[in-house]
Design goal:
Order of helices and strands: EHEHEEEHHHHHHEEEEEEEEEHHH
Number of strands: 14
Structural class: alpha+beta
CATH architecture of the domain at 185-295: 2-Layer Sandwich
CATH superfamily of the domain at 185-295: CO dehydrogenase flavoprotein, C-terminal domain
CATH class of the domain at 185-295: Alpha Beta
Bound molecules: flavin-adenine dinucleotide
Largest sheet: 5 strands, antiparallel
Distance between the termini: 48 Å
Helix content: 25-40%
């Protein structure tokens, strides 16, 4: 398809396979850009925030990559899968609850109907909501390039705000996957955002917990953003949890450990540092409680 009106790209491709997508990117030798739902990229291109591209390569309609599948021990999400598909999927609601919750707060229905989880991760913003949800689940991503495909832990793809180690002019994030929560496991997400004005998150957090029969936490993951240049895995706070009995006191201590490992900045567009800290103190224990309840089989 040729774009003559806006003239911000000349050609728009809808490849029917990953090989065709990668070949097209190769042919343009860095002058083409991958696009998913376009809810970030097209807005940015129209606002002049990108150097002009010769071509857009739309990977949201590749057959087979527009679905959610179970493959061995993983739930696998194709790069064409939208946030709306994720929040309607019974397997993700049950076994990847924090991902479902995090995709559910993205934009409004129109944005969720076209925006993809792959685009959220590839955009590499420090607080992409789906990104924060998948990071807590221990998500991995598959990248296809001219020399083959590789799976990597998703946190290895983040370089700086909006900058990914995925070369979005030559490589395609084809699939995302995580191990579903099993018996004794639960997860939860919460985002605090200004109700009006600029849609910027004040803090977005997700957790995954595994509890033994006596309530000892045997595994924990906590993701947070924006608390630095890239989506953050709060390892010091995770260490506070593991080996200890789940309790409100422990969850409060975990929030303090999380705060001690980041520097929250005041921002006139988000909130003061003090307010953001208070939101961590309030909502990190709250989602740890929810995840623990879910791990115990309590419906929340
Ligand atoms: C009104 C509005 C509200 C929004 N609200 C939220 C919100 O609450 N929370 C939130 O997190 N986001 C929000 N967003 C941002 C956006 O909708 C999401 O980040 C969305 O998930 C982006 O996905 P996409 O498929 O549209 O990505 P695109 O815009 O198509 O692409 C985004 C970036 O990723 C690259 N890319 C896309 N797919 C791939 C791929 N498969 N392989 C390699 N690179 C790829 C593109 O080159 C580009 O750099 C909002 C956007 C709008 C317009």
């Amino acid at each position: 398809m040729t774009n003559t009106s806006a003239n911000r790209w000349h050609n728009y491709y809808t490849p029917k396979s990953v090989a065709e997508a990668v070949d097209t990117l190769q042919r343009y030798d860095g002058q083409a850009r991958v696009v998913g739902g376009g809810t970030d990229l097209l807005v940015e291109i129209r606002r002049g925030l990108h150097r002009p591209v010769e071509a857009l390569v739309d990977v949201s309609r590749i057959p087979g990559l527009d679905a959610i599948d179970v493959d061995g021990e993983h739930i696998v999400i194709g790069c064409g899968v939208t946030h709306s598909q994720i929040i309607r999927d019974a397997r993700i609601i049950e076994y990847g609850t924090c991902l479902s919750e995090s995709c559910g707060v993205i934009g409004g229905p129109q944005v969720r109907n076209v925006g993809t989880l792959a685009g959220n991760v590839a955009h590499a913003l420090p607080a992409g909501d789906g990104t924060i949800g998948l990071l807590a689940l221990g998500g991995e991503i598959e990248i296809a390039a001219a020399d083959g495909t590789r799976w990597i832990p998703m946190q290895e793809s983040f370089r700086a705000p909006g900058k990914s180690f995925i070369d979005r002019h030559r490589e395609v994030l084809t699939r995302l996957r995580f191990k579903p929560t099993g018996p004794g496991e639960g997860s939860a997400h919460h985002r605090v955002m200004r109700p009006q004005g600029l849609c910027l998150p004040i803090i977005s957090m997700a957790v995954r917990l595994r509890l033994e029969d006596d309530d000892t936490i045997s595994n924990a993951r906590i993701s947070m953003g924006p608390v630095g240049p890239v989506p953050f895995l709060a390892e010091a706070a995770m260490e506070v949890l593991v080996g200890n009995i789940a309790s409100s006191e422990l969850f409060d201590k975990t929030a303090e450990a999380a705060l001690a490992s980041v520097t929250l900045r005041s921002s006139k567009y988000r909130a003061s540092r003090e307010y953001r800290e208070q939101m961590v103190r309030t909502f990190l224990p709250a989602i740890l409680n929810s995840a623990a309840d879910r791990a115990r089989g309590v419906r929340t």
